[in-house]
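Quick question: what would this complex look like in 3D?
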Amino acid sequence: MTNEFRYLPDTEQDIAEMMKTLEIDSIEELFQDIPEPIRLKEEFTLPDALSETALTTHMRQLATENVNTDDASIFLGAGTYDHYIPSVVDHVISRSEFYTAYTPYQPEVSQGELQAIFEFQTMITELTGMEAANSSLYDGFTSLGEAASLAVTTTKRSKIAVSKGIHPQGREILKAISTGREFELVELSLTADITDLSHLKETIDEHTAAVVVQYPNFLGSVEDLKAIKEITAAQKALLIVMANPLALGLLEAPGKLGADIVVGDMQPLGLSMSAGGPHCGYFTVNKKHMRKIPGRIIGQTTDKEGKRGFVMTLQTREQHIRREKATSNMSSNQALNALASAVCMAALGKEGIQEIARLNVDKADYLANQLKNKGVPIYNQAPFFNEFVVRLNRPVSEINTSLLDKGIIGGYDLEPEYGIKNAMLLCVTDQRTKEEIDNLVSALEEFIHE
Amino acid sequence: MNNYTDILFEISRSGRTAYSLPKRDVPTISLEEKFSKVHLREEAAKLPEISELQLMRHYTALSNKNFGIENGFYPLGSCTMKYNPKINEDVARYRGFTNIHPLQTTRTLQGALRLMYELQEDLKVVSGMDAISLQPAAGAQGEWAGLMIIKAYHEKNEDLKTRRKILVPDSAHGTNPASAVIAGFDVVEIPSNEDGTVDLAALKQAVGEDTAGLMLTNPNTLGIFEKDILEMADIIHGVGGLLYYDGANLNAIMGITTPGAMGFDIVHLNLHKSFSTPHGGGGPGSGPVGVKAYLEPYLPIPRIEKTGNGFELNSNYPLSIGRVKGYFGNFGVNVRAYTYIRTMGARGLRKASESAVLHANYLRKRLEPYYDSPYKQVSKHEFVLSGNRQKKLGVRTVDIAKRLLDFGYYAPTIYFPLIVEECLMIEPTETESKETLDEFADAMIQIAKEVEDTPELVTGAPHHTSVKRLDEVTAARKPIVRFE
């Protein structure tokens, strides 16, 4: 009889031979150690197995039930962005030598990935202006949580001051992590669209381990890191910056402005939105904090013949060696996505990263100007990158329903979390054309304040 | 190709590009004017400048120095390196899955929500749990989420102040104690007995009113089924603790038993292990967390729910531990796991586990004459050997692992679990053929003979890889973590 499962190679003869070697008469004998009362009496109740053809049809159907960026012009950002992804990215990460490998425990046969991640670490530290990076963490929010934890451990202080300009989900995750690690969170309010410096000054003290800000922040505005650093440093607290790596093509590297830890998500550089994951957190620090970084770090070394090679290094920080004394429980990372981002950064190169950042600024500015000309108030007072806030005359959810009928995915509804009435966070990436932007402006006309 | 040693920055030449940005169709604004209040970069980031073909050659050359499942047998214990089906990769790339934004309205994400909901339903069946959240991105995050549920549960019962201890067997994965600590618990290690299972007497002694819970992998990391599991569950529940299941080794028991049937309250599953999603060189993975009904209010939010009007998100769970990961978790990974479950069906999953266990026992039987085999009972999906016999001849387990690379195999997990000296932990998985198992056994047997006859051949290995053994000590002492 032929095997109905194409991933399972055992023939009846193979099974018979293996059972003979094991001196057993049935496969059941291999499971005699599982107590009778807990053995299942019946097969799992699952949908029937599908052929490849039927499965493809089914999956296409599910995919069609979503509205994707081919079906509508998307002006929604808020932490996840529709950017240009060079075609080479998917070709590289589709090589099975990369995507089917495990964590490079045997470096002699994992040099390809190790070198690629070493290059990733170099490129992301170039962008952030820091000295060391890890190989990636689950996402930007996880990196943020780990950064806060590192600050608490290093400074032996118990309070983390978090700007309200941090992505709401980032703040939610910080809350969960602080409940686990048992440190305190305090919120820093905003003056309109950026972190309120006088509130910052009043709030932080000698118990503050770190100040956490986003760059550009959730409302799209660019924080004045230099001013924030001055206030933070006066209390000897660390400055943690969650930065959009694509914006760093243009904005000054946080490391140059005094950041102690710079984290964020690589999604804008080479990763599809994929309903929010898998994306890829990055984590960069100066050498001073290098030995406390969570997760895997790739280092350069030589083999016994003196040839350059790469290994996972500083592993004595890690859970598989230190167990309960580890600095973090991080085990797996997002290596394949770090590779994708590395390919994207290499494809863009020194010029491309500036050009794509520039394009985002110009397109967002164009939309803002068009709306301003129609009388729409722009909420942002500080300079913004590729996102900004507008106030309209109806609830955002209502407007988005109307926009969707016109083939537009509208912006993010800020009202629930920020209490700004009828406020929509709009995003314009390099992928939106002038025509799409003009269409959005026309579609919004009926929602403009009189 | 193994001679390629260039780093991206070494092949970079000013003026080369490998990108094609959309044409500018809006005015160019003055950056100095717009950003006058903040800071623009003084110095451009030094990203490499290369052409598109150079880029592809570079990464192709790197890939040729990397070993994946399709290059050969990958018997890495506790990692379940089974085949990563191609159809999974195809469907995960449908634009209806990749080009959707997580904050779109639920009305525009019905396919994604349906897929996740159905996957949760499937995982409920496979784990014997009553509710699942797909949010955790990997096993360690699933563990942490589970521990936070334990914490929230005890807090609700107003005895968190006294319940500070998480019990973890000495054979557990390193993430278990680490996750417990970052969830704010103290870790108590429970010794294993000589059978390789949890020492019940020691467990009884360790439990008490300060017990928050027990974390257990079953079968454990020695590949042995903890046959006293029901009694252990009684002991833990008897003192008011919760039982946590580390799903790393689920590939041994699919369709045969479930963590739910064993008495576990909380489970995490590694979809990148049992459910065939690729490991990606270390990630992304997916580590859903599941619970029994009475713990459902504590699961991460938002939850995906089925209503008369399609699928919706619900965050109205005041007891929830909150959010552990952005958005819905690693959706793209979950698409692959869903595809795998639809391919295999109930019977396929069971057959996978049966074959995985058959393969492990067969391979162990073939190797037992040549290597020390510390545990005698039947294995589940993996088994451990000890290199003690070879160590006496001056060859360490790490040498045996390196020598295997010369034969075209990846190495087993080594020096783990910590309770076995010179440990080799081997997990063959169900997707390998008998011929592969036999060839691997022949190679291991040959290495055992080399240890006796020509030990320097083994201690000097690997001989045929792109680099020889690497100096990890200097790498850690004088770290170079970026190109200078």
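Answer marked as accepted. Residues 73-84+350-447 of chain A form a domain with the Aspartate Aminotransferase, domain 1 fold (CATH 3.90.1150.10).
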